[in-house]
């Protein structure tokens, strides 16, 4: 309302950032943050000339500090902007850099929005080709105001193949469409588990749910990621699988569209 009152356009680009890609999910725990981190690293690995940043907008449960093996408080620049913390060549910003790890974050909606606004705009991002935003899970006010406040090039939606997760993923896709954010596609996560002892494959959450949803929505299936111990372990160690095991099958076979040789 304030913007409107001042007669400014509602969506304001982030200084220095060319394209914003949001990674969203309907539910928590489906692998959204893991995907966001590996997407950012993958974008950079794919083309070293591109600069990529990562913003953790999941202010209630910030996981980027752990996933990117970063901690500490951002320094302030002489323009009073926060300097992102950097690992693997990716500048990152997260509420986790500003509050104690175990402190409960009990906030009202408006405070959450103003915190996210600060994490987005009071940061010296430098010049970025892509800023990947790890969104909070769900389709509430916060998600909606992020999509309304900044111009977004596209959204990547992560879901497990389980019906209940898919239903929420669909809601997510519809939210983005309503606010004219292109849905770049769906990533199906945790679709198959291969027993390391006997190689038997089990579809713990179902097998093709996200593929079917992608068809229904008319969007691309961007990836199909197995449930794999190495993904969990590398994430917990802050050594994302795309950088620590780039040639492993759990990475190379996850992409539905294979990179050109
Ligand atoms: P979200 O951001 O949706 O809450 P996370 O990315 O934090 O989900 O993932 C939740 C948990 O599942 C983390 O412990 C993560 O390491 C693990 N995880 C995510 N994807 C996979 C996968 N494909 N294989 C194994 N573990 C995974």
TrEMBL record:
Cleavable signal peptide: none
Compartments where found: Mitochondrion
Cofactor: [4Fe-4S] cluster
One BP annotation, GO: iron-sulfur cluster assembly
InterPro entries: Mrp-like_CS, Mrp/NBP35_ATP-bd, NUBPL-like, P-loop_NTPase, YlxH/NBP35
CC terms in the record's Gene Ontology section: mitochondrial matrix
Superkingdom: Eukaryota
Protein family: Belongs to the Mrp/NBP35 ATP-binding proteins family.
Protein name as it appears in the record: Iron-sulfur cluster transfer protein NUBPL
Source taxonomy: Eukaryota, Metazoa, Chordata, Craniata, Vertebrata
Underlying gene: LOC107733195
């Amino acid at each position: 309302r304030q913007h409107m009152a001042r007669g400014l356009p509602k969506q304001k680009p982030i200084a220095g950032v060319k394209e914003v890609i949001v990674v969203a999910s309907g539910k928590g725990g489906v692998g959204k943050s893991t995907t966001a981190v590996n997407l950012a690293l993958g974008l950079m690995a794919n083309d070293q000339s591109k600069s990529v940043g990562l913003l953790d907008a999941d202010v209630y449960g910030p996981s980027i500090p752990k996933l990117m093996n970063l901690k500490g408080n951002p320094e302030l620049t002489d323009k009073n902007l926060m300097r992102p913390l950097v690992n693997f060549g990716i500048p990152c910003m997260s509420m986790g850099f500003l509050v104690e790890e175990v402190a409960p974050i009990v906030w009202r909606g408006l405070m959450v929005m103003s915190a996210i606004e600060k994490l987005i705009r009071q940061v010296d991002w430098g010049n970025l080709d892509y800023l990947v935003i790890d969104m909070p899970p769900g389709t509430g006010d916060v998600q909606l105001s992020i999509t309304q406040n900044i111009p977004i090039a596209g959204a990547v939606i992560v879901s497990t193949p389980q019906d209940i997760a898919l239903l929420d993923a669909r809601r997510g896709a519809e939210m983005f469409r309503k606010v004219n954010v292109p849905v770049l596609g769906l990533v199906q996560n945790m679709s198959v588990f291969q027993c390391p002892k006997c190689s038997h494959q089990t579809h713990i959450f179902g097998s093709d749910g996200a593929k079917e949803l992608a068809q229904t929505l008319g969007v691309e299936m961007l990836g199909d990621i197995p449930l794999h111990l190495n993904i969990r372990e590398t994430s917990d160690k802050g050594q994302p699988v795309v950088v620590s095991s780039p040639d492993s099958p759990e990475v190379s076979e996850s992409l539905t569209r294979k990179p050109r040789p």
